[in-house]
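Researcher: Re-running this chain for the archive, since the previous output was lost when a drive failed. Same request as before.
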Amino acid sequence: MLFIAAALAASYLLVNVGINAYYRTVYPNHYQQHVQQYSRQYDLPPELVYGVIYTESRFNPQAVSRVGARGLMQLMEETFEWARYRMSDPAELEYSSMFDPETNIRYGSYTLSLLLEEFGSVETALCAYHAGWGNVKKWLANSKYSRDGSTLELIPYSDTQFYVDKVTKTADIYKKLYHRSWDKLSVP
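Model: Regenerated structure tokens:
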């Protein structure tokens, strides 16, 4: 009987190790140093940054969307220009720099942090990241979508609702998979 219990325990352990290895393959933590550095610098949960990167580009730094957004975190040129101005970065830094993983993660994280500060909730910040700041401001002003002017009860764009759900679920997976290793990571 003891042998059967030990065999079952070993089988359980092997299955869990296998499942964890599978999930770490499907949800990699590429660019960990940059994600950690900029999530700390801009006071973001790293899993949220990973959720955006995974959803936006699946870690392809050369990704270009059908509307022209670029890089890992899929920034539009107007967003890049706005963030560059807010960050007081040099004017000679060009939009093509959004293909550089570190620069893209820095700008995407900064933008996400400003949206979180502005809107106060992850869901609403993600709506603005996806559909635009102006659209979210209009939605919040419309009683059909927001009763209090600060919380969205309904996201009127189905693709934005899908995006928010996808990023949130992906961020939860990243937190479960990697939070212990992130706590130990030393970032300057």
